[in-house]
Amino acid sequence: MTSPPAALSPARAAPPAHRSRRPLPPWLAPLTGAAVAVAAYLLFRGTAPLPHDDDAAQFGAVNDVRDWVDANRNESPVFLFFVNYVRLAVGGLYDVLHLVLDGLGWVGLIGAAGALGRLAGGRRTALVAVLGTGSFGVLGLWEASVDTLALVLAAVLLSLLIGLPLGVAAGRSVRLRRLLTPVLDVMQIMPTFAYLAPMVLFFQIGPASAAITTMIYSIPPAIRITALAVEQVSPSAVEASTSLGATRRQTLRKVHLPMARATIALAINQTVMMALSMVVIAALIAAPGLGSDIIRGLSRADVGVMLPAGIAIVVMAVVLDRITMAAAARGPVPPGASSFLPRLAVPAGILLVTGIAARLLPAEFPREWVLRFAGPVNEAVNWAKFSWYGATEAIRNGVTEALLNPLQTVLTTAPWWLVAAVVLAAGWRAAGARPAAVAVGCLLATALLGLWQHTMETLTTVLAGVVPALVAGLALGVAAARSPRFAAVQRPLLDTAQTMPAFVYLLPALALFGATRFTAIFASVIYAVPPVVRLVEDGIRNVSPVAVEAARSCGSTDRQLLWKVRLPMARRAILLAANQGIVMTLAMVVVGGLVGAGGLGYDVVSGFSQRTDFGMGFAAGVATVLLGIMLDRITQGADGRPSPRKSP
């Protein structure tokens, strides 16, 4: 009997084919959501506006709190036994530092800077320190520069006295690190203006309030970087120290701190840079120094007044950066006087010679050495304005009419619930449910503060500045990662750009475009590009060489290698770059309130200049923080989201 054909055999019969469901394309959900949002806007625009009211009850409540504080400053135990003593102690520290620096005279201070540079980094660093410090007098800003330097030193000393021990403790305690992380996140998201109002409320205006504000602003990097340095110390070294019977204190002193020395020095460097950027803005609360010249120049649109102070700030930043970075790069002094004394001999000689010269020469910087160029600068600015008026006016008006005005109209006329729904959907898709909930909560809180309309105006300028900053940063970062020669040319420019305080970026923008909203956007793009470039470049450079080599062996071209391997694998770094670009753009746009940007930045400035608007300025500072947290939660949360998988 013959067997049945294979096709008819039950054992060999093929199972019925199941049709696989074709997955939806990944772009369909965002596109559908955008279409629904547009349709809802067209149907409901203008139906639930939240217009701005200068006399909102929330602002009056803050003014009442301020009046109570002023009335009870010398009666309440909180002020009598704590706040007033803190203000007096910090003010006393500033006075002592200022007395010492001023007592050295111009020759002595230049010599002390040179000696410190020689001790930290050698001849080149000493030369930079001497020339940089001497330039303060050449610019005609010696007294103002000494005031700023004393304020920076006071704030940095306080930041390090608090931040380094906290950082060490956080590096050794996971529980403390988790407790500090959200606080530090908020502190680093907060734009500089947001720190001013609470400090004025408790510590009044003046050097003490400015130093405390600067200390709070600059302390997060001291804590974060120190904690990271201690946490990353080799566990085997710690285990070896413990096995030899060392106590926790001995292990900290003999193992953790020596091995984390270089990174802790970097924390000091970043603290100094942050403090220097803040003391300029603290001029709004009567901080002495170079910031007052910049504020005066901004209020008058006088670039000739601002430029010397801006140059002095940049030079001071470069000098302090070079000294601290040289100290971080230099190895520890080996034990024994024979190795230490030669290193100390030259700086001691510089101090001795300049100390003698300071006694023989006049205490004031020679007036004949001062360069006066405010007049020529203003003439050049006026010439550029009139010569380039057609181009600059066309750019400014084109961007304003084609982008800013329509975008602001959409955001300010859209119902509040629609904007909240869009933020919720964008946050949920980019970062997840919890960050989306936080983002929406922060957005709605700005409405409760009575600042919805001004928040939307600020969001308009932020969005308009973020897009070109990210495009330019991504392009330059990719170019630097692919070309070592281009990276070598670009690196010193980025170093200089990242040491410049935020106010300095307003100078070229103000000279070209005047005091307008576009000026703040232009300055914010320049301000945000350097960190974006660095993060993108580092992310692409750190892509696994194995993956790159595998793609090359499969015949991938350079373009395919970039789009299929490098950019997808550098996704986390690129998202972090976007996060930093957004936060820095927000910070700069708020500073742009001084040059006509409007929105929350103008409210903050108005709150300091007019007593009746203090409540609105205080609330605007809080709203700025909330807006920053909203944008940060969406973009920072996206960094931890898995990449969308391609359908097979």
From TrEMBL:
Pfam families xrefs: BPD_transp_1
InterPro entries associated with the record: MetI-like, MetI-like_sf
Q: Which GO terms describe its cellular component?
A: ATP-binding cassette (ABC) transporter complex
Major localization class: membrane
Q: Where's the ABC transmembrane type-1 domain?
A: 145-324, 455-635
Q: What membrane topology does this protein have?
A: Multi-pass membrane protein
Q: Which family does it belong to?
A: Belongs to the binding-protein-dependent transport system permease family.
Q: What is this protein called?
A: ABC transporter permease
